[in-house]
Design a protein that fits this description.
Blueprint lengths: L8 H20 L7 H15 L5 E5 L5 H5 L4 E6 L2 H10 L4 E4 L12 E7 L8 H8 L3 E12 L4 H9 L14 H10 L2 E9 L8 H5 L13 E8 L8 E8 L6 H7 L6 E8 L6 H11 L4 E5 L5 H11 L4 E4 L11 H9 L5 E5 L12 H18 L11 E4 H9 L12 H10 L4 E5 L14 H20 L2
Helix pairs in contact: 1-4, 13-16, 14-15
Length: 476
């Protein structure tokens, strides 16, 4: 539901003053550059990281269209209320589509988009909530809003740069805080996913400050630009089908329990077993249980090594709309899987991550050093990803098949050195700006077999992965 039209006499005067102002700025930029070039180059770098390739992109308040063009969208549409800016956008980027429209009324525009951008316009709008409400028309469930807006701390430096003719002049601004924008998004039926501070030094040779120093406590609060990513408020999905993928290596004694305890979920639940070169009779035990039960189940031999390799094969063979991972050691009870299902289907999250570190564990469920390591990596990866991740190595993870397909398609961005598969999925979900939700579980003691994890070997690998992720996610 859109709010009533905001255009009373005061609003109309406000609007016309700004149209005249931005027409003058568009004309001025034909022959004037100022110092904003380094700032805008950095903006383009950040948006190229946040926006997937070949996306359908709408930029509201597009100016001359340079940011939109830098993203090379499969469908690129820009809207701006300045006729002079739109005229130049069409001339500079004829491959894109531009419309002279006010952000407060986009009724003449049609289409659905993967990404909607609001770059440096929120502080200039008369009614921010109404503009967000206008954007709802162009959203699908997986549409992402990406916003950046100036920090109030930079009001004086920007004013000085404008007086020295080093920056484009601005009219009186709203100077919204991140908390203000968070609230306005929620009022317009959007859900913020994550936020960051960007661009500490919008000057030549500012690369180190803008990639590294701006991530540090005490300095990030001084950044020029606030970034936020949001999604449309979720709507519950109809009953989808489910595939539960079980990587089983030396788990002969747990197979019968898996068949008996995994509940039926959604319209249909299938079990996908991937057996990984066991030394016991795991493969034969699975064959036996498939023959004994009427439920849908499949068995495959793992061609490679490592849990990640097994899970990928299982996901490839799965037919369900929802993909679930269940560890064959049953340290996470199968009876908890419906809670993961409900969290995903209800829209509370788009990647549901099991967490073993909330409730007390059974005595032998996790060795003390493993527990400390998990605590450390949860803090490290929460900082890296910009979303809370309390437990990175709980095997139970649930996501939509279509999101996994996007993760797999972009796997080369991070590389292929995760033997567990957990970080491959977590990093991929974060890169796609999916809403990650932690779901606490009671972690049980293993009743059969021994863990396949080497705390020292794999702990060192996790450090390497964290360093690699920092370079590819945080210090971009």
């Amino acid at each position: 539901m859109f709010s009533p039209s905001p255009f009373d006499d005061a609003a109309k005067k406000y609007r016309q003053t700004r149209i005249d102002h931005w027409n003058q700025i568009a004309e001025k930029r034909d022959s004037w550059r100022g110092l904003g070039g380094w700032y805008h180059r950095r903006l383009h770098e950040i948006y190229k990281f946040l926006v997937p390739p070949n996306a359908r992109v709408l930029e509201i308040g597009c100016g001359r269209g340079d940011l939109l063009a830098s993203l090379a969208p499969s469908k690129g549409v820009g809207a701006d209320f300045s006729p002079a800016a739109i005229e130049r956008a069409r001339a500079r980027h004829p491959e894109l589509e531009f419309h002279c429209l006010d952000a407060h009324d986009l009724s003449a525009l049609d289409g659905k988009f993967d990404v909607i951008i609001f770059s440096d316009i929120l502080n200039d709008l008369w009614d921010v909530q109404r503009v967000f409400e206008q954007a709802q028309k162009f959203c699908e469930p997986r549409t992402r809003l990406i916003l950046n807006f100036y920090s109030h701390l930079w009001q004086a430096p920007l004013a000085l740069a404008q007086r020295l003719n080093l920056a484009a002049p601005m009219l009186r601004q709203n100077w919204l805080t991140r908390e203000d924008v968070d609230n306005l998004l929620r009022l317009a039926n959007f859900e913020p996913i994550r936020a960051s501070n960007e661009i500490l030094a919008p000057l030549p040779l500012g690369g180190f400050a803008n990639r590294v120093l701006v991530r540090l406590w005490g300095l990030r609060e001084l950044a020029l630009s606030n970034f936020m990513i949001a999604r449309p408020a979720p709507q519950p999905a109809a009953a989808p089908s489910v595939s539960v993928v079980v990587a089983a290596r030396n788990e002969e004694g747990n197979v019968k329990n898996i068949f008996e305890r995994v509940p039926q979920m959604g319209s249909r639940t299938e079990l996908i077993f991937v057996e990984g070169h066991s030394k016991d009779q795991t493969y034969e035990a699975i064959e036996k249980e498939i023959a004994r039960h009427s439920r849908t189940a499949s068995l495959f031999r793992q061609p490679g090594i490592g849990k990640a390799d097994a899970i990928r094969l299982g996901f490839e063979k799965a037919a369900g709309d929802i993909l679930m991972i269940l560890d064959a050691d049953l340290t996470v009870p199968p009876e908890d899987l419906p809670r993961f299902y409900e969290a995903l289907v209800s829209g509370k999250g788009e990647f549901i991550n099991g967490v073993r570190l909330v409730y007390p564990m059974e005595k032998e469920a996790m060795r003390f050093l493993n527990f400390l390591g998990n605590k450390f990596f949860s803090m490290a990866f929460s900082w890296l990803l910009g979303q809370p991740i309390k437990d990175t190595l709980c095997g139970t993870k649930v996501l939509w098949r279509k999101d996994y397909e996007s993760v797999a398609a972009n796997r080369a961005y991070f590389g292929d050195f995760d033997p567990f598969g957990d970080f491959d999925l977590i990093f991929g979900a974060a890169k796609l700006n999916l809403k990650i939700v932690d779901l606490p579980v009671r972690y049980r003691e293993r009743v059969y077999g021994e863990t396949n994890i080497s705390r020292w070997k794999h702990g060192l690998l996790l450090f390497k992965m964290a360093a690699f992720a920092a370079k590819r996610i945080k210090f971009i």
